[in-house]
Design a protein that fits this description.
eight-stranded mixed beta sheet; alpha+beta; Rossmann fold
Length: about 775
């Protein structure tokens, strides 16, 4: 379950801007943990000491209390209607094959190529201006593009339409660069996922659940499959639950020699349909799609390998002795060997199978078992030497990289320690280096590292605390980085592979100036220890006119789902500005990462296994209790807000910790885990039959009689992810229990509840709710 909404060194402009300046003296830190029975005066005193020592460290250099001019007001209209606080980003595009240049869409209509070393424009490869125009005569935006391997041709996609989170359909054209010739990919309908064959002679694509190949020399279009049928058979792409939970949609794969194409086939015949009503017309229409809920039937997935010359296909023997998923498929460096990852339905055993392309027979290359579950990544990399591969694993209790040979024998660990590799970025075999992002010093910051394939010479390549997001060129000579902190918006820049800065592409100076002009407060990080002895990380934004002699209401933001993180040293482009606005209205804004969140090792992250919601709710309640003990917090005015998994937790906190929360805003929540999909829910909970107590004990719908505080429920009626059913069933339970609540449904809105006016309406309504109930 993921929700598409929206924390690095602090920029000098933010440090110097006019906010509350505090002087806090560092006091001896003897900590007395709070107990459920209450705290004595010494405990309160020492808790205050610890708070000031950890949370307000950044204010130690300030000489005295002073209130500076707050500046211009932050408004919801500026945030959502005017995009006044919009982060300026860059489209990092694609590296060209030489690794010296990169391609990027600019102005939505031009595909330009830039030089990494200088950052200068080299050429415009294609423009829709004068070639592809809409009904109004204007040039159509380029929605998608890809080069052939020899970079002599382009696939250009226009008139794109979203299906689900990742899937799109568009009209595609082939642009022959030297000839300046533009040709339609297919004269029939729109296409999905087109891809050149490695030799550039063909393009494969999906249309109407079937897989096609077009021969670019003859112009012939050939159907590899013909049995595709909506809500029954899918060829070459993924079904809803695979797309959402395994994060991919392309389900076909060219062999390195272009002789074969492998594809995934989904048989949804036994999967039950979910129906959504779509409004906006005299007679609302029904939208039906296959959605397997926890414990129900999944689609049957098979892997097929098609020979282009013979037009014959074989089925890979990926059948197991139990139900399974096929979350990843890729070719090895050997064009006769296809790698298939097979994961048990319980998701605690992963196997990498090697399928013979001619016969479909498979052999086991790699296997891993886990006490809880295994997270699927894109890390499996077969090296050009044909003798090794790299894979990531949590086998040590932390996520690390390992080198194996093609007989499945572990050669060595490439990383180790009590910290997590966040993301594997690839391998430069010429120089014998692997690159990765890791949270070595703190879960709040990451850094870019390289390590030799011999396991030696680990080198940190980025220096400042914050969050980096690099994208390497082919050949790993350069990378384009996006770097931000919780107080400074992203800086986009080009670097040599060793980290040396070449050029800043975008520094978001205008946004920084606007933040200063609107009196943004610098958020602070803190850590507190729960009554169970667990140290939890938190983030706090104080009102700009903060006076420790006063007491303030607290607004807590939570997501809290498995492996997630809200307390991180990264700019928050959407909610972060809203938090600043709430702080200026007199709220202390806080977020705490509970047990189950990421980058603190496997044990911390998988603590919630089989009991989603239990420990998260305990920890959020402990955070509220901790905050209520601070002298400047009004413990009777603490609200909690979340979206998606956070919406689930906010509703559950109000029900299971009614004495700690005065109000909750729950947006697009799961209210009963039996309503959610198989892959996500069963990964953490197993099936309802295996774990009925786990499902029922921590579903908000079963605890509504205990709610005391004010509750607002929000949902989009066309949410294909967390179905509107969750909120409807919750409202029925609330009515039956005699619990008053507020409800807002956004017609035909999906999980993101997007759109300028819709988002503005939502945040105005939530702001008013907080002001009415907590001020």
């Amino acid at each position: 379950m993921r929700c598409g909404r929206g924390a690095s060194p602090v920029h000098e402009g933010n440090i110097q801007s006019g906010f509350v300046k505090l002087i806090i003296f560092l006091l001896p830190e003897k900590i007395f943990l709070p107990t459920a029975a209450g705290r004595n005066e010494n405990a309160k005193k020492n808790m205050m000491i610890r708070y000031f020592n950890s949370l307000l460290w950044g204010f130690l250099t300030m000489a005295c209390f002073s209130v500076m001019a707050q500046g211009e007001a932050i408004t919801l209209e500026k945030l959502f209607r005017d995009n006044y606080f919009r982060v300026q980003s860059i489209t990092r595009g694609q590296s060209m094959q030489d690794g010296l240049r990169y391609a990027v869409i600019e102005g939505r209509t031009d595909l330009n190529v830039y030089d990494y070393e200088t950052g200068t424009l080299q050429q415009t490869v294609f423009s829709t201006t004068g070639r592809l125009t809409g009904e109004n005569g204007n040039a159509l935006p380029i929605d998608d593009y890809s080069f052939s391997l020899d970079e002599s041709m382009l696939l250009i996609g226009v008139n794109q339409e979203s299906i689900y989170r990742y899937s799109r359909v568009a009209t595609y054209f082939i642009w022959k660069i030297a000839e300046e010739e533009l040709l339609p990919l297919s004269g029939v309908s729109r296409q999905r996922l087109p891809e050149f064959s490695p030799d550039g002679s063909m393009v494969a694509f999906v249309r109407a659940n079937n897989l096609f190949v077009k021969d670019l020399n003859s112009g012939e279009e050939h159907a590899i499959t013909r049995d595709g049928e909506k809500n029954h058979i899918i060829n070459g792409t993924a079904d809803w639950v695979y797309e959402e939970e395994f994060s991919f949609t392309k389900g076909f794969f060219w062999s390195p020699d272009s002789r074969r194409i492998a594809w995934m086939r989904f048989d949804e015949g036994h999967v039950k349909e979910f129906t959504m009503m779509m409004y906006g017309s005299l007679y609302p229409s029904e939208y039906r799609f296959k959605y397997p809920k926890a414990g129900e039937d999944n689609a049957l997935v098979s892997i097929h390998i098609y020979d282009i010359a013979t037009r014959q296909a074989v089925v890979a023997d990926a059948r197991g002795d139990q139900e399974h998923y096929i979350p990843r498929v890729q070719w090895t460096k050997d064009p006769d060997k296809l790698a298939i990852q097979r994961l048990t339905r319980q998701q605690n055993k992963l196997e990498v199978l090697l399928a013979d392309a001619g016969s479909g027979r498979t052999s086991l290359l790699y296997a891993e078992n886990n006490l809880y579950y295994i997270s699927i990544t894109n890390d499996l990399t077969f090296l050009d030497d044909g003798r090794h591969f790299i894979i990531s694993s949590e086998r040590s209790g932390y996520n690390h990289l390992y080198l194996y040979d093609m007989k499945g024998r572990r050669v060595r660990a490439l990383s180790s320690g009590e910290w997590d590799v966040e993301r594997y970025l690839g391998v430069d075999e010429e120089n014998g280096l692997a690159y990765y992002l890791a949270r070595v010093d703190s879960p709040l910051n990451n850094a870019l590292y390289s390590v030799g394939l011999d396991g030696r010479s680990t080198t940190r390549l980025t220096a400042s605390d914050g969050i980096n997001s690099p994208a390497f060129s082919r050949g790993f000579r350069y990378f384009i980085n996006s770097f931000s902190t919780i107080s400074a918006p992203p800086v986009h820049s080009i670097h040599h592979a060793g980290g040396k800065l070449i050029k800043v592409l975008e520094d978001n100076r205008v946004l920084r100036e606007r933040a200063d002009r609107h009196g943004f407060s610098d958020p602070s990080f803190f850590t507190f220890t729960t009554t169970e002895g667990v140290a939890l990380n938190g983030m706090m934004v104080l009102p700009p006119d903060f006076d420790p002699a006063n007491t303030y209401p607290v607004f807590m933001y939570v997501y809290g789902g498995p492996g997630s993180q809200t307390v991180v040293n990264r700019w928050n482009p959407s909610n972060g500005v809203w938090f600043q606005m709430l702080a200026q209205k007199g709220f202390i804004v806080v977020s705490v990462d509970n047990r189950g969140t990421g980058y603190r090792g496997e044990r911390f992250r998988k603590m919630t296994y089989l009991e989603l919601g239990k420990y998260e709710t305990i920890d959020q309640a402990e955070a509220a209790q901790y905050l209520a003990g601070l002298p400047f917090v009004d413990g009777g005015r603490i609200a909690i807000f979340g979206w998606s998994y956070g919406g689930y937790l906010s509703a559950l906190c109000l029900a299971k910790a009614p004495d700690h929360f005065a109000a909750a805003i729950s947006v697009a929540p799961v209210t009963n885990w039996r309503f959610y999909d198989t892959i996500y829910t069963e990964r953490y909970m197993r099936t309802p039959r295996e774990n009925p107590e786990g499902y029922d004990n921590n579903s908000p719908i079963n605890h509504v009689p205990d709610i005391k505080g004010k509750l607002m429920l929000v949902h989009g009626s066309a949410d294909d992810n967390v179905h509107y059913q969750n909120t409807l069933e919750m409202t029925a339970a609330l009515i039956d229990a005699g619990v008053q609540f507020e409800l807002m449904i956004y017609p035909d809105s999906n999980h993101g509840i997007g759109g300028t006016q819709t988002r503005l309406h939502l945040y105005r309504m939530m702001t008013d709710f907080l002001l009415r109930n907590l001020r």
